[in-house]
Amino acid sequence: MNEVISSLVSQLLVKGQYAVLLYFLAVNGWYLVLLVSSLLELRHHMLLITDESRHLLLSSTLSPTISILAPAYNEEATIETSLRALLALQYPNLEVIVISDGSKDRTVQVLSEKFDLVPVKTIYEQRIRTKPVRSLYRSSTYPSLVVVDKENGGKADALNVGLSFARGELVCAMDADTLIEADGLQRMVRPFLYATDVVATGGTIRVVNGSEVKFGRVVKTAVPTNMLAGVQVVEYLRAFLFGRLGWNRLGGNIIISGAFGLFQREAVVDAGGYLHDTVGEDMELVLRLKRLSYENGGPGRIAFVPDPVAWTEVPETAKSLGRQRDRWHRGLADVLWRHRRMLLNPRYGITGLFVYPYYAFVELLAPVIEAAGIIGLALGLLFGIVDWNFAGLFYLTAYGLGTALTAFTLILEDLSFHRYDSFRDRVLLFWWALLENLGYRQLTVYWRLRGLWKFVRGRKDWGVMERKGFRPVTAAG
Amino acid sequence: MVSVDLLNIVMLIELGLLALAVALFFAHGVWLSFTQKRLSRLTGTGRDSLARLVTRGTVNVEEMSVLQSLPKYVQVIAFLEISRNLTGTGKERLRFVAQQIGVIDRARSLCVHRRWQRRLRGARVLSQLDVPDPLVLTLLGDEHPAVRAQAAEWAASQPSVPVISAMLSLLADPATQARFAVQNALLRMGRVVAGPLGEFLESQTGRAAEAGLRVAESLAAPSFDSAALRLSQSDDVAIRVASARLLGAIGDAQAAERLSAMIHDDEARVRAAVAQALGRMQHWQAGSLLAEALRDRTWRVRREAGLALRSIGAAGALFLRRALKSDDRFAADMAQQVLDLPEAAAG
Q1: Residue A260: what are its φ and ψ, rounded to 5°?
Q2: Label partner for A172 (CA 20 to 30 A): which of A159, A247, A308, B324?
Q3: Are A45 and A176 in contact (CB under 8 A)?
Q4: In this complex, do A56 and B28 lie within 8 Å of one another by their Cβ atoms?
Q5: Closest chain B residue to A407 measured between Cα atoms?
Q6: How distant is the Cα of B127 from the closest Cα of chain A, in angstroms?
Q7: Does the interface ipTM go beyond 0.90?
Q8: What percent of chain A is modeled with pLDDT above 70?
Q9: Rg, C-alpha atoms of chain A
């Protein structure tokens, strides 16, 4: 019996190894193309922004009005600081809309006390169907502040309510705990001023864990010493600096982080706003905007700004991170399934022919292929078909190029914005880049497979995100 | 099975790449740390010398030789840093020193370079030093929009007739980046633009007219009256909206009369802009028209009409209170919401 299984496994391994290696080669080869593309894009971008007088050009009364949509759920502890930081953003025409999504704590009361809120009649133009709005407030001291208290309906529903109240030409969708750089909006709005076909822009989101935060602003950056957070710093750098930036040059961006993105309000409202019944509502909206632009004409370019414009807290426990990755992968699967008619469809241009297949065959199926490789190797060892030397070599070869590419991403960051410039940070960054492949990556494979499985079973819940809180600045000295 | 030799070769290549990346990463870190310290020290020296030269107003050979001894890129950094905080005589002195040191000549030669990146760099230096060099004017016709935009930024501090005329022609620039920079620069030039812009708008239609109207709205000079009246009859909705806004900004009797007629426009966007403009003018005579607009079928028009009534004072408030009892539920709701708004939010 054992011999039969052993021979079966042997045959599978012989045939499968080439497939796995070929897959790794194709994926990493494409990553190499993205890396070169992002290098060119970054160079072009740095040329454009070096010594530019952004304050003169972008602090103009002609700049489009931006409505910031900040959904909040049980944020009583942090809402005042977060909101003061938003109101102090360096942008001339700004409106801030806080949407309390059925908070059960004192979020609305805290806002009311600290920002002199006055209740006004709840009348608004409901162009997108949402959960009912309980009350609406305006501030007597901050004319640009609007607070909406609504029944709980999730982030997508809260953003849709915000869209109904927004008066700006552009809307900025963000998470309540996102920290935006003081001039972040000035940087993000740039693509809208430079081209008429831009429908949305996203910027680089950085990991705030380990950095010092004061009054809702990051005052000192540092790479975290916690392994999970540290590896995510590397992951975020890779995702933004060579993933999205590389796609930007190729015209294939379809992801804007839910933590911070800027959209043309009318385009989003006309598209029907955010979908409620998906956990990947950010990507779904962007892909829908893109699809509609192909189908109906109109603006459809998704631009990416490589400048670090916002900071977000990442999970530091495996449980929390697992839930997040599981949700992200379910979201990806769901979005791709909803828009499956785009796959290899020339009607959708580069998105249908290249970007969609990339996300379907590389991003979505990566955990399946990786798991097959790992299981195959383990079985091979178990049945004595491969020896430890071969297994080790195969493993290192499979992950080696990825590690080298990550290291090149660190160089990209260093050549452009170099926010992590101390020797300690460099060592830590490199250390986390190496450690990523020893356990962390395999865990994400498991979490993503779990997400896929849940998608197949039709689960659409979000799970709970535990937050540790920002590291405040210590007293002077 | 894949041969171990093949895997060894692949792994060696990968290791080589990784080693190269790591070496570059750390070497760049060391280089960065060294150059940043050096740059900071040299820029500090340059800044101090420049500050002394600009403050004294006389040429000090010693200070000049200190500046000249600095690397060229450091000179540029020091000049640009100081220039942001200077105007008038101070800036003139800075330009004089820049000329003596050769910073301006180098920037000029960059302006005619065949690569757009260099031309952009040259234009940036000349713009930030406010150098009145006609060479930059020629860059308004550059093939790259970033260079044209930079030249427009330079033009903001050079409000002469030829410059304004060249800028106005760029209001129809196909590149949004250049068009926006031109609009912004015209605004920064101020009232001096009003006359030429008024004449320009008299004969324009399309994109140029729309862009010009936005600038005119911010300048709000009475000389735009006839152009605004003409363009308010355009077939283009965006132009009618921009004209309504301009008429509201001008706010004279002719404007009020035309706006009162425009409130019945077929397009909701135009009606909303007209209501907003009447509110901006605080034209209380339009109260009944705005009260009528409170019953408009479009939410946005009703909202702008309500806000306009609120902003025209007691007469408007009276109309709003009357609307509370209106048989039109939408008008009554909007009136209630506008009356509820705190003073700060009603503007």
Answers
A1: -170, 110
A2: A247
A3: no
A4: no
A5: B21
A6: 10
A7: no
A8: 94
A9: 23
